[in-house]
């Protein structure tokens, strides 16, 4: 790996970088003003006080439907980029997670995103975890991907989606509508943590003209619609795309199902996606599944190769496909989604990426959120309850970890001549962050948290992309730039 994260880097404050740092754009009026409503404590497209199943049943919130249509700058076709045999109007998209169904895919496609990942599906219906699923965090620094700093618990803050969280009798986590809850306009004060929240969310720490810092933790348990519902909805989602856009379907398996191994269950999920017409599959190896060596599955090269070899066979057998730019079943490309690697473990990353390419993967996407223990303020114990002491941290504080992954992966891909595309994910909450990832070596950049809280992020990037001449000086992994 090019650089090791020093202690000073790991504790560096999150910088709310201005959208206008690239392409010579100096006038704030060129782009959407991030200080006038892009960030709310409440997501514009997801009700945090409702479960995944309730959000799915209710559809997009009314506040989202009331948004005016977005105005987008479309690149001329000769400036489109090629990714996994698809032509994309831009290298920006939405990662697995926020796109619950065809409604959310259509929303993203209309708001400036071109590489869209349908939320991770299973071979069977799975409701996921109970509330709370999303909590805001008191974090104002970049978080390390590994090392002693990972052991320190993070603190949840009162706000929309959690309101005031209390741990009651029997260890159950309750959500109460107490004092300190924020409002849809982000004007809540929070009696317990008001000063810290003000600094974290930008009231005092964002700087003049800077965007508030967005830091959340989420714990959903990878819920999934039933196969029969997915068979109906995936084609509807694909039909919402325009030329220059693609949809990836994220798949995972379930451990411990009677009579079915994880690999067999993963193959069943892939067949569901292919039957719905998926033109690209992302294999989610980044959540806490355990490989044969008792490490995270994505860090276990033999397990990665075995799983992908089986999935490649499913694709070759014509389990689905067609439409879009991906062709028939045998032409459906595979991506793997991974989490962060320890900062010094370039060799481990190399073994995983080599195994993935050998088994037939066409690209790698990373990172997923960073796993951390999250506690209540004042020593109140695990914020999500004793059954879920740790959860995934997302948003601004994981951007440096994501960029480190992209830089290291680009170097491995270049030095070993691997035929892998590279998707950068993590902490992308402003348009300039997309450019940072592209310059670090990503072929495509995706956002999840930024999509959910910043309704103009996609179109902000499209304006920035146009101003930059539809190009970025990407690191080639060999010390040069393309």
Automatic annotation (TrEMBL):
By its UniProt entry, which InterPro entries does this protein fall under?
Answer: Aldolase_TIM (IPR013785), DHO_dehydrogenase (IPR050074), Dihydroorotate_DH_cat (IPR005720)
Give the pathway annotation: Pyrimidine metabolism; UMP biosynthesis via de novo pathway
Organism superkingdom: Eukaryota
* Keywords of the record: Flavoprotein, FMN, Oxidoreductase, Pyrimidine biosynthesis
Domain Dihydroorotate dehydrogenase catalytic spans what residues?
217-453
Q: Which residues form a coiled coil?
A: none
Q: Which GO terms describe its biological process?
A: 'de novo' pyrimidine nucleobase biosynthetic process; pyrimidine nucleotide biosynthetic process
**One Pfam family name from the record?**
DHO_dh
**Cofactor(s) recorded in Swiss-Prot or TrEMBL:** FMN
Q: Which GO terms describe its cellular component?
A: cytoplasm
Q: Name one GO molecular function term.
A: dihydroorotate dehydrogenase activity
> What PANTHER family does the record tag this protein with?
DIHYDROOROTATE DEHYDROGENASE (FUMARATE), DIHYDROOROTATE DEHYDROGENASE (QUINONE), MITOCHONDRIAL-RELATED
Q: What is this protein called?
A: Dihydroorotate dehydrogenase catalytic domain-containing protein
Which species is the source of this protein?
A: Pleodorina starrii
What phylogenetic lineage does the species belong to?
Answer: Eukaryota, Viridiplantae, Chlorophyta, core chlorophytes, Chlorophyceae
């Amino acid at each position: 790996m090019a650089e090791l994260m020093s202690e000073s880097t790991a504790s560096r404050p999150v910088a709310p970088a201005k959208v206008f740092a690239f392409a010579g754009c100096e006038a704030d009026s060129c782009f959407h003003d991030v200080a006038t409503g892009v960030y709310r404590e409440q997501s514009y497209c997801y009700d945090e006080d409702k479960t995944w199943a309730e959000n799915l049943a209710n559809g997009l919130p009314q506040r989202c439907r009331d948004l005016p249509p977005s105005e987008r700058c479309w690149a001329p076709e000769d400036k489109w980029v090629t990714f996994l045999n698809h032509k994309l109007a831009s290298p920006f998209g939405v990662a697995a997670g926020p796109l619950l169904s065809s409604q959310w895919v259509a929303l993203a496609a209309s708001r400036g995103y071109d590489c869209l990942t349908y939320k991770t599906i299973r071979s069977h219906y799975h409701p996921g975890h109970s509330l709370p699923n999303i909590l805001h965090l008191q974090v104002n620094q970049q978080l390390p991907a590994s090392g002693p700093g990972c052991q320190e618990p993070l603190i949840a803050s009162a706000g929309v989606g959690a309101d005031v969280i209390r741990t009651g009798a029997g260890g159950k986590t309750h959500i109460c509508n107490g004092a300190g809850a924020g409002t849809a306009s982000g004007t809540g004060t929070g009696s317990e943590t008001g000063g810290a929240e003000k600094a974290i969310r930008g009231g005092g720490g964002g700087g003049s003209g800077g965007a508030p810092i967005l830091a959340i933790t989420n714990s959903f348990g990878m819920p999934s619609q039933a196969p029969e519902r997915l068979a109906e909805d995936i084609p509807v989602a694909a039909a919402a795309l325009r030329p220059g856009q693609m949809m990836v379907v994220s798949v995972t398996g379930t451990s411990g199902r009677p009579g079915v191994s994880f690999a067999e269950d993963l193959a069943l999920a892939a067949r569901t996606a292919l039957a719905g017409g998926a033109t690209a599959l992302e294999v989610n190896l980044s959540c806490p599944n355990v490989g044969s060596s008792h490490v995270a599955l994505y860090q276990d090269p033999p397990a990665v190769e075995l799983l992908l070899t089986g999935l490649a066979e499913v694709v070759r057998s014509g389990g689905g496909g067609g439409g879009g730019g991906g062709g028939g079943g045998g032409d459906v490309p595979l991506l793997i989604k991974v989490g962060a690697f320890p900062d010094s473990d370039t060799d481990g990353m190399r073994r995983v990426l080599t195994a993935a390419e050998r088994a037939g993967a066409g690209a790698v996407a990373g990172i997923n959120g960073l796993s951390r223990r999250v506690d209540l303020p004042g020593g109140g114990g695990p914020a999500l309850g004793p059954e879920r002491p740790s959860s995934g941290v997302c948003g601004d504080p994981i951007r440096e970890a994501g960029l480190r992954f992209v830089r290291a992966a680009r170097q491995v891909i270049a030095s070993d001549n691997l035929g892998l595309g590279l998707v950068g994910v993590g902490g992308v909450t402003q348009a300039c962050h997309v450019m940072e990832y592209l310059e670090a070596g990503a072929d495509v950049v995706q956002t999840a948290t930024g999509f959910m809280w910043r309704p103009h992020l996609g179109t902000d990037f499209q304006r920035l992309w146009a101003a930059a001449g539809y190009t970025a000086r990407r690191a080639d992994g060999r010390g040069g730039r393309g």
